[in-house]
Amino acid sequence: MAEKLFSKEDKAKIVAAIVQAETRTSGEIQVHLENHCKADVLDRALEVFEKLKMHKTRFRNGVLFYIAVEDHTFAILGDKGINDVVPDHYWDDIKDAMLVHFKERHFTEGLIEGIHMAGEQLAEHFPYDQKGDTNELSNDISFG
Questions:
Q1: Residues 6+ away with beta carbon under 8 Å from 31
Q2: Can you list the positions of beta strands (E) in 35-72?
Q3: Between 1.10.3470.10, 3.30.70.2470, 3.10.310.50, 3.20.20.105, what CATH number should domain 2-143 receive?
């Protein structure tokens, strides 16, 4: 089901949103979709974060959007660098904005809004430096 949640066009829009956000920052944004989350959603998001090596960014500024489709749960996980500079409630604010769309079954729009919101903070605190930034950890969308 995770692979079918987004059409080919939806996936292209999501990847385009990630690319757009990453052109303004040294940060990394990834989306990971699974059917089920067999553990606490934040614990599972942390496992995926590590599996995708998102903690390997130079400034520890990776952001993961983790969604367990059939369990109707999701988490946003930022690494230490970005967590140190955003307000405590920031990830919850993004989740709330996304949830408004998700409740209307507008999953693509919700995810894109979350990506844009995260990208704004990444750009503000970790601007792109064309001399040393590479933004190439792995695919922007992965499936578990």
A1: 14, 18, 64, 65, 67, 111, 115, 140, 141, 142
A2: 62-68
A3: 3.10.310.50
pTM for the model:
0.91
Tens of pLDDT, residues 45-91: 999 999 999 999 999 999 999 999 999 999 999 999 999 999 999 99
Residue 50 tokens read as 């590590």
Alpha helices in 23-106 (DSSP H): 41-51, 80-83, 90-103
Cα 86 to the center of its chain, rounded Å: 15
Overall average pLDDT of the 116-121 stretch: 97
